[in-house]
Amino acid sequence: MRPLAAAFAFWLAVAALPAGAAPSWRVVAVVDGDTLVLEDGRQVRLAGIEAPRPPAGAGPGDGRSWPLAEAAATALADLALGRQVSVRGEAITDRHGRLLAHLQRDDGLWLQGALLTAGLARVHTRPDSRGLAAGMLAAEEAARQAGRGLWRSRAYEVRWASEPEELARHRDSFQIVEGRVLHVQKSGGEAYLDFGEDWRTDVTVHLGRAAMRAAAEAGIDPLSFEGRRVRVRGWIGLRNGPVVEVTHPEQIERLEPPAPPPRTVRRAGPPPGRRDADAEGD
Questions:
Q1: Which residue range or ranges hold the TNase-like domain (predicted)?
Q2: What is the DSSP code string of 184-202?
Q3: Are 107 and 193 within one domain?
Q4: pLDDT, position 272
């Protein structure tokens, strides 16, 4: 923990809660960079973050090493092993039976904030676990600007929406994508954010009905993204071109003030026909 002391001290200062504010448990084991085990046997998955980890199916005897995964697990062990922790905010149980929660150490240190500040995790919120997103995004941005941890690796760099062929190579992986939205189409309670002139090959962000309701509750109109530079995070799919499914507003960051709409001709044709073409491309 010594090389990360300055970053961790920041979160000690800003994330402290009064002593005795919540029940606490001792951490007895660390599974990986974002999962640990409490003294009562429960596993806790740290909510809102994604630490580096070996690909699915990789085992200790396959001859490959995963230094960033090891670094994240080591950092979490340094932070939490043998320490008392308590839940910060709400907690839920995920489909694997783990507790999904933000954890705070007995001295006030917020584990998610510390890992993000050290560059050993990326923000990865979920529709049912969106709390503290603003603080996490700020910590991630500080680590990225400083080039800490995983932000020194090309494997985790921000991808560009202007390079759809490159992004397509990362299908079925969690990525952070940045670019300017050229067009927004809304129809039937859904919305499409287009980053290129041809949605059949270029990058698209799709907001389904549930995401649109969540955006409305947050006071966000997807049309406000047109002409804006944004950063989107999510799993990369392929439906014609690369697509990111947005399920909640925290997946999209506005990066600059509104810009004049691009001087291009809006495509004719209703989005329902587009959905039919999408289905053909699956």
A1: 21-153
A2: EEEETTEEEEESSS-TTTS
A3: no
A4: 44
Residue 261 dihedral angles phi and psi, to the nearest 5°: -60, 145
Collapsed DSSP state (helix, strand, coil) of residue 261: coil
Domain boundary, last residue among 90, 123, 152: 152
Kindly report, residue by residue over 205-245, the tens digit of the pLDDT.
999 999 999 999 999 999 999 999 999 999 999 998 999 99
pLDDT at res. 131: 86
Q: Round to whole Å and give the CA distance between 81 and 183.
A: 49
DSSP symbols for 82-145: T-EEEEEEEEEE-TTS-EEEEEEETTS-BHHHHHHHTTS-EE--BTTB-TTHHHHHHHHHHHHH
Q: C-alpha angle 195/197/198, rounded to 5°?
A: 100
- The verdict on 127 and 218 lying in the same domain is no
Same domain for 182 and 226?
yes
99-143 per-position pLDDT tens digit: 999 999 999 999 999 999 999 999 999 998 888 999 999 999 999
Question: Domain range holding 212?
Answer: 158-281
| Euclidean distance between CA atoms 27 and 202, whole angstroms | 46
One domain, residues 59 and 126: yes
Which has more confidence, 30 or 97? 30
